[in-house]
Amino acid sequence: MKNLFLLLLISTQLAISQADQITFNHVALGVSDLESSTSFYTEILGIQRIGDPTNNETIRWFALGEGKELHLVATPAEFVRPPRQTHFAISSANFDIFVRKLRQKDVPFVDWEGKPNSVYLRPDGVRQIYLQDPDGYWIEVNSFTKE
């Protein structure tokens, strides 16, 4: 009986701890021009577009790796006003090549301090830049490796 009680207690604790596990799934951004934003995320950032299981013509889905996704949702322009403080970050395994591609395509970016076309070296050794998508959403791009 004592063993049965102990087993019940352990299985209950395991079920509770599993129920509390939270993981990031996706981020959705409202965009005023779905096609322009789709081009930016695929051609400039190199993010892969994936199928939309909802078959909704006003949403585009993208893979961010490890099962995480970005969803772009067609939204009236008056509702798309992203503040600078709102941003998401992605990492590039080939940071120097990524920055070179931005420069070749004349895509403006800034460092942490706002200096145009500059790369910021964080105190922890990670390099980073910030750029904006067609609707003005800020995107931080940083290096996988530390200097």
Automatic annotation (TrEMBL):
It comes from the Bacteria. Coiled coil: none annotated. Residues 23-144 form the VOC domain. Gene3D superfamilies: 2,3-Dihydroxybiphenyl 1,2-Dioxygenase, domain 1. InterPro entries: Glyas_Bleomycin-R_OHBP_Dase (IPR029068), Glyas_Fos-R_dOase_dom (IPR004360), VOC_core (IPR037523). This is VOC domain-containing protein. SUPFAM superfamilies: Glyoxalase/Bleomycin resistance protein/Dihydroxybiphenyl dioxygenase.
